[in-house]
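Our collaborator T.R. sent over the components below with a one-line note: 'Predict the complex.' Nothing else. No constraints on interfaces, no templates requested, no preferences about which chain binds where. So this is a plain run: every listed entity goes in together, and whatever single assembly comes back becomes the starting point for the next discussion.
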Amino acid sequence: MQVWRVAAQAPLTAQEDLRAAAACLREGGLVAFPTETVYGLGANATLDTAVRAVFTAKGRPQDNPLIVHLPHPDCLDWAVSPAADLPPTVRRAMDAFWPGPLTLLLPAHPRLAFSVHPGLERVGVRVPDHPVAQALLRLAECPVAAPSANRSGRPSPTTAEDVIEDLEGHIDGVVDGGPCGVGVESTVAWVDARRVVIYRPGGVTPEQLAEVCGVPVTVDPAVTGERPVTAPLAPGMKYRHYAPDAQVWVWWGDLHKVQAALAAFVAAHPGQRIAALVPPALAEAAPASGLAAGWVWVAPAAEPYDVALSRALFRQLRRFDRLGADHILVVGVAPQGLGLAVMNRLAKASAGRVWQV
Ligand code: TXA
Ligand code: MG
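Returned assembly:
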């Protein structure tokens, strides 16, 4: 498979590698590319054979719809029905968050391949806030359907190496644009004149949507599970997603109690390879918890913990898997703001092993 590299200095749309990747995409190839959230696996959204090949490469269930990516908000008519009458709330959301990690469910253009949104009137559309993605999409001159570029069920990829690890031999190539900034996927939302419903929490928070749209925002109960947070969430295997091979365990709340929970876990699992993701405040306590130095990822103190954890989460889950961890312990965050998305991914990665202490 091809690895197309991006040079930092030259104008992106003039670069031979990017032009080659865009041509491959346009003609029906499968091309992974960076966005501000995670790497996507792109296919020309107007070609049904190309889109179906995405599902095969990922091992993804055929009934899970794909997000269509556009280079610029001006290209909305590449993906959205010309008959669509969008309310001002939708326009406000686009103006405020595009380009950015917000996917809006909108009436689909009939030119889109059936497999992009099988059996659904609406298609998820977004404009990624990443110069390489924008240049590639511009050069491809077509709407691009792209799920995250991982094997189905695995943590989403945030580097080109992650993509290669999962999809080598199954796709035509990857555009290497370095590591992704946000680290968790876009927020998927339905917006109408009276309300916003979030179907997947992500990089744009419910609080931000409420402020910009000026209407009530609810999170679909299927997302939150509406389960008591003091007990482990129902560990149904259908929730196992974003999951490394190691078992993931999550605690959040009072940091002293979290620290005690980590120490108790380590003490109860002698001889096991245990890794941890912790905030700076717990770093000094980590050796005391029995964790070896190389097995602890400590969030940088320079940014809020939810932002740092979001950026690093999938990357660190994959890294500790490669090292052969049996367990990965994660210090979680309150499920608010960006924390809602982070905790949603952690609930799935851990099959519900999440405790508030
Ligand atoms: O940040 C992102 O959104 C990344 C990058 C590559 O853009 N993409 C991504 O795609 O995460 P994927 O396929 O891994 O997740 C798409 C989510 C799924 O939960 C899917 O069910 C939902 O969006 N979705 C897509 N189209 C939909 C539709 N028409 N109706 C309802 N849900 C939809
Ligand atoms: Mg995905």
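Summary for T.R.: Residues 227-239 have pLDDT under 50 and may be disordered.
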